[in-house]
Amino acid sequence: MGEKMKVSLVYISLSGNTESFVRRLSDYLLELHPDIEVEQIPIKDMVKEGQPFFEMANPFIAFLPTYLEGGNGVDNGDVEILTTDVADFIAYGDNASKCLGIVGSGNRNFNNQYCLTAKQYSERFGFPVLADFEMRGMLGDIKKVAGIIEDLYGIEKNESSF
User: Fold this and answer.
1) Scanning 84, 85, 105, 140, which has its CA 20 to 30 A from the CA of 12?
2) Are 118 and 104 in contact (CB under 8 A)?
3) What residue ranges do the domains of the chain occupy?
4) Secretion signal: which residues (predicted)?
5) Which of 3.30.420.10, 3.30.1130.10, 3.30.420.40, 3.40.50.360 would CATH assign to domain 5-154?
6) Which strand (E) or helix (H) includes residue 83?
7) Which residues make beta-bridge pairs with 134?
8) Other C-beta atoms within 10 Å of 144: how many?
9) Bigger pLDDT: 84 vs 11
10) Cβ of 5: how many Cβ atoms within 10 Å?
């Protein structure tokens, strides 16, 4: 038996919504594919505990909520607040080249600012916005993102899960 395939999920969560989504997504993936390993990397905890950033050994997907200050994201700018540590992690070493894409989250009430930070990271680092979800995300969002992960990592889909 070879090593288990590792799916790495890098995220930051401030209100708990993104962490909840990543946890439920991980549980869902492991239920479908008990033969894989799902690694959760909470950037906020690393920073809080003073751990240095590190280079990822394998491909990962980033999860990013939108926290902006000022502006409307269209004609008078915006300032990303509280989540810039994710950009610093992605920019560290060779990490940007290992990021398969980003999943944004936010609140649709913010119109043009909905998932704007994920779109900005996509432009800055050159990887795609894979999906988005609102607030904590619904089961449909989890299934959609799980399907994207299966495709990106080449994990054979379990027909029974659909």
Assistant:
1) 140
2) yes
3) 5-154
4) none
5) 3.40.50.360
6) none
7) 106
8) 17
9) 11
10) 14
Amino acid at 122: S
Q: Give me the residue label for tokens 């810039």.
A: 84
Residue with tokens 């894979």: 130
Which residue is associated with the tokens 């200050």?
69
Structure confidence by residue, pLDDT tens digits, 98-131: 999 999 998 888 777 778 889 999 999 999 999 9
**Residue 85 corresponds to which tokens in the numbers above?**
């540590």
Query: CB-side exposure of 145: number of CA atoms within 13 Å?
Result: 31
- Which residue, chain included where needed, has tokens 């959609």? 144
The model's pTM: 0.88
Largest separation between any pair of C-alpha atoms in the chain: 56
Q: Are 149 and 29 in contact (CB under 8 A)?
A: yes
List, in sequence order, every residue forming a beta bridge with 74; answer none if it has no partner: none
CA 48 to chain centre: 19
